[in-house]
Amino acid sequence: MKKSIFRIALFTLLAAFLIYACAPTVEASPTSLASAYLSIEYSDAANLRSQLAYGTLKLTDITPEQASTLIPLWQAVISLSGDTTTASEELTAVQDQITAVMTESQLQAIAEMQITNAGLNEFYAQYGVTLPTPIPGVTKVPGSGSGKTEEEKAAAEATKTAAGETTGTGQAAKTLLFEKTIDYLTGISGQ
């Protein structure tokens, strides 16, 4: 009896090994095309999509044809960013299409800019938008500022609104960089 249990176990183990060995290999999820040119491996690095957008705003050698091709892609980024059902792979696919339109020298120029979140905050500040971003080395204390009354909070919000400031919680604030990129490309394309 012990021999037959041992043989069954050995046979099962051998069968499992053979199935595993003959199974098709599944490659790891592909990396984005942008990551072949751009990096997030430096201090305070902005995400790849923001690097592409902000870097595009700083390039002076975009052709009208490139601009015409890039405009609908950036519009797709805005559309997909506003949809809560969008998978990250969808945004990465559009980001890869944007990357494919750019020349290698343009992508290298963007990489050399080493775009940071601090730099993006300066960009957003020009438009009265403040994005809540973590400060390196500072841990946010939950509930800080909660000592304000509802009236004080409402007054502070009204002051910001009157001054034309926008906080980084709305969709418009999240897509401002992409919208400005579209405006820039529209000027180049002549559309």
Summarize the structure.
With 191 residues, the chain is mostly helical.
Structure overview:
- By secondary structure, the protein is an all-alpha fold.
- The protein has a domain at 31-116 and 174-189.
- It contains eight helices and two strands.
- The protein has helices at 2-22, 48-58, 64-81, 88-101, 104-113, 117-125, 150-162, 171-189; strands at residues 129-130, 166-167.
- A two-stranded parallel ribbon has the order 1-2.
- β1 (129-130), α7 and β2 (166-167) form a beta-alpha-beta unit.
- α2 crosses α5 (104-113), α2 runs parallel beside α8 (171-189) and α3 runs antiparallel to α4 (88-101).
- The longest helix is centred in the first third of the chain and has 21 residues, at 2-22.
- It is globular and about 55 Å long.
- The N and C termini lie far apart (83 Å).
- The model is unreliable at 9-30, 137-146 and 165-169 (pLDDT under 50).
